[in-house]
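Blackboard transcription, Thursday session:
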Amino acid sequence: MELALQAKGITKRFPGVLANDHVNFGLVQGEIHALLGENGAGKSTLMNILYGLYQPDEGQIFVDGVELQFASPHDAIKHGIGMVHQHFMLVPPLTVTENIILGQESTSINGRPASQLSILQRRKAAQRIRDLSHQYKLDVDPEAYVRDLPVGAQQRVEIVKALYRSADLLILDEPTAVLTPQEADDLFIIMRGLAKQGKSIVFITHKLREVFAVADTISVMRAGKMVGTVSPAEATSESLAALMVGREVILQVDKTAAHPGQPILTVTSLHVRDDRQHMAVNDVSFDVRSGEILGIAGVQGNGQSELTEALTGLRHVHSGKVAILDTDTTHVMPREIIEVGVAHIPEDRQKHGLVLSFPVRDNLALCTYYRSPFAQGIEVKYPVLERNAEELINTFDIRTPSAETPVGSLSGGNQQKVIVARELTRAVKLVIANQPTRGLDVGSIEFIHKRIVQARERGAAVLLISAELDEIMSLSDRIAVMYKGSILDIVDARTATREQLGLLMAGVKAQK
Amino acid sequence: MSQSASTAATTRLSSVRQLKGRWWVTALFSLFLAVAAWMLLNLIIGGQCQGECVVGTLAQTLRVATPIAFAAFCGVLCERSGVVDIGIEGKMLMAAMVAYAVNLFAFQALKGSMGEQAAGDLSRWLAVILGALSAVILAALHAVVSIEFKTNQIITGTVVNILALGLTGFLYRQFLAENLPAGPGTFPIFNVPVLSQIPVIGPIFFQQKPLTYMMLISALLIHYVLFYTPWGLRTRAVGEHPRAADTLGIGVYRIRYVNVLAGGLIAGLAGVWFTIEGVDVFNPMMTNGLGFIGLAAMIFGKWNPFGALIGALIFGLGTSVTSTVSIFRPDIPSQIPQMLPYLLTIIVLTGVVGRAVPPAADGEPYVK
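(Written on the board underneath:)
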């Protein structure tokens, strides 16, 4: 069989890491090939090599049987390879047309390449974009500004951008990470349409469900190695997960039935503005009881960040009321909220959760350093901090060379463990966790999920915010869905279905 | 489908709204300011500024706005590509001194062989070119250090300012302070044929000196390049999201280099204006902060050349009203009206004219 793209023995070393270890990869023309693996398994490195962003230390790349070397993405584009990056490479203040033609603006005048100071052929380009959009059913408006488009539409712009450059081979890097389940299904339809018209697609993901939904072939990477290539017919979720992680994984979270007690957190018609002064949280009311996990589902950017920040005192509340037990915490400083008994696992662990240049020891006491036994008067008792750190490093299995190591040099999973250790070992009544497992490997996810469930069993109320529907569904007792700043509905997790939640996440409220 | 159509409609609506916000507000605001300035002026000088005095003040406005506008254009070019340049002031000072010296000494060397008239013309243009090139050299310094070596651009810009201040001060003391021969003077006024005869418009726009015309033409040219050419599209993309441009095979560093150097050339013209078009002397620190006022004009104009021009004209108006006041009311201490342009700068920078959003990658070195 003729391979559209083949990589042989690709090896790539970064300082201290072997990112790709003699990786072989083959893509058949017209197929959708899923590349599965955990974060850090080397999927993105491999694809960045195939797209010319990195140069391999060893190995060969063949396109249609011809060996090639890519010095830059420019070379890869020339040979018909297009990539849709996980973080879109679009310029928000420019129009769709401008974004698509960027770098490829003027074709040529009478066979000679046109000058960069010649006039832009916007109208001609827009027509070609409309044609492509029509041919592949992509529904892209060339005149729109990218900053006004929803994420799903931006992704289609990225696909058109690749097709505009005559790509025959598309690399989609975690394309569903930012989509609702319905949007993801729409994307799969588009992908199948593209494959039917002869395009070959590499689809990078770590979500098992999606692999079965769309892939013709599945390759699995682990720790820089290609560990297997199978067809979806002969694979199961369990076998793929075991391949990904290298051991048997429990995909289901073990938890007992909830015994909700009194309400711990009560939020009443909360309004919060975002940085651009738009009402990001609009009339939100809910409560979380002790001993239960309330999950807040929703596509990123629907007000979850602002809600979390308002609840933890990091953002000004426009109107409404937040109460924790009997204390009104609507307009108090974050420290007072902490002292009432709130644990916060922030969305951006590096920006809001840790002081990266401080040692693990100090980061483990960021909420309590000023109190006995860590401090006496104005003096910090470092030996006590030291002992506290050793203890937590052991119980939470934080992999660090020492308690003195700057927390910034730990891996993402261990950084998150530092936060979890700090927040959940205090006597807390309420846990607010925003995206607690984003970007972590399966092992760390398992660990953190277990700790969150433990907190619930100790009688704490847990507010879990996540864009990963699977995480919400497996942990929560009740599920609230947030859409454009409002809570559309709160449903019982035992009866909720993925389809029902997906529709809510897209803003469609079921008729009762 | 219907949902996407409505999205497209709101998109178009919002872009229209933005256009309105940009041009109508700015234009109306400037008109209002001009009328307010005129009324205030007459209030102070007892209604003596009518007819010819108004035309004269406006012509003066355009004249003194020229270096501010050039400085603002330099800022627009650099910052649209993502490089902050606060060294405009220094480049202007350097260009002003180099141009002054070239004008003076080239004239001495040439006047024997080709007559005073021709020697004057030639040496003035030579001064424009070499003056601007001296600013390009400083821009190259800023470019190499901040693009290649990724230093903090504010610090590099400050270094350029201090360097220019020290260098021009030193050279002035050594060579230009005393015992100077007579020079050819500044550019004569060039009346544009026909157009200069139009009443009101003629004296304001078409009885000016060459650099003022060049400034107006550059506004058009920069607008065309930024918004209608591939180069401009790439420049804007690099200033907003350099990595996106990089993934499409666009050389981020090359784009930034060329824009910073072109900006340096234009800042050079701003400096040359002082000694070849403004007055026939060079003084240390004669640019007097106009480079920074140019940056304020750029922010006022939301990083668009025409907006920056309007901003520069408002500052120019402040200056020219000041000088009219001092003619009619010599009893008012001149320092008080002279504060006006700087007060305007502060007001503009506090965002009275609506919040201006700089290019997203402005000031951030790009690490590949």
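Lecturer's comment: Chain A has a mean pLDDT of 89.
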